[in-house]
Amino acid sequence: MLRSHEEAASAVWQALLALRRRTKSPEAALPDLVALACDERGWRFREAEVDHSEQVLWIALDGSLPDRTAGADAPHVAGYDHDRFRAGEDPYVPLKGELDPHIVSALRLYLPCLVGAYRAQRTGRPFVMAHLAQTLDGRIACCNGHSQWISNQANLVHAHRLRALHDAVLVGGRTVAADDPQLTVRHVEGDDPERIVLSATASVLRSEAHYKLFEDAGCTLLCGEGALDGLVLNGRHGRVDVVPLACDAGALISPAAVRTALAARGLSSVFVEGGGRTLSSFLEHDALDVLHLHVSPVVLGSGIPGFQLPEVTTIQAGRRLQVEHFDLGGEILLECRGGSDR
Length: 342
Ligand SMILES: NC(=O)c1ccc[n+]([C@@H]2O[C@H](COP(=O)([O-])OP(=O)(O)OC[C@H]3O[C@@H](n4cnc5c(N)ncnc54)[C@H](OP(=O)(O)O)[C@@H]3O)[C@@H](O)[C@H]2O)c1
Known about the structure:
Radius of gyration: 20 Å
Largest sheet: 10 strands, mixed
Strand content: 25-35%
Order of helices and strands: HEEEEHEHEEHEHEHHEEEHEHEEEE
Bound molecules: NADP nicotinamide-adenine-dinucleotide phosphate
Number of helices: 9
């Protein structure tokens, strides 16, 4: 048996990357049912028959799990059912024997975005996942913007795994200003996602600071239509692609408009990596399919909150989410669902 999330995630990582590459390659249609299977060579992605495997996880890429999945020869068989995930139920379906529990947790955490992105290619509505690391008292940074690092090394690697499994990673303008992030995949094997910055005012383009994101190719700024006066030539500011979008009455861009703009660029999964205001804007509009909330044993007593929503006056008016918890290097990762209008 494996001893930790990280050991299990490393064990299944090549199989997950193979599944991602295959779901992104348009040349040959995939069957509705595929598998991840473990034999003496380790975990592999399987499109066809599964032979001589110890552990098999069937994945329903389209529709629900068919009954025949329980009949495989392997002694340990289970299934992942994305329809159950969307319905707020446990998508892991034990069928025969027991899979390694750390493998089950790792696959539970990473499969939703892969299958969600695959289905999104046909619906044109990108799968949206978010992640925040917060203190016990719900802060994601000090008041001055300092936030590195609230969480542990296991969470840092986990966040890079999530980047590698998405088409795009998106942050708000204040996170760019505070952290000057690169948003690349450096801690695990995988491809860098497209980098997206959301800034209604395009203030990050006006800044005299030189942000790393804007020096590389592969970064797009989504900003308000009225924010650009003279900043942009032929849709570009330096190496940054700039996409003006209509703002709503609150001078913000709706998550629906963000999703439409990203779908138009061929991006079918988006990883919202903060900060609080940006993530809250998606949550407020029921536009988050899943949120990974890492909770670290730190108390600040002040700072920037992760959730910044309009005031409510009764507990009943708050959002009650479905939550499952996972161990990440001795700290808690909460998988939260119920923030999507799907
Ligand atoms: N602990 C963690 O996991 C974590 C993760 C990420 C960031 N952080 C920290 O979080 C802090 C920043 O968080 P924050 O809540 O202050 O700000 P933020 O969410 O990073 O950025 C807010 C800004 O993003 C733009 N924006 C957000 N939603 C928008 C929408 N719907 N339409 C158009 N523009 C939108 C606006 O930019 P304009 O004002 O330019 O229009 C807004 O002022 C930083 O200190 C950073 O270090 C922590």
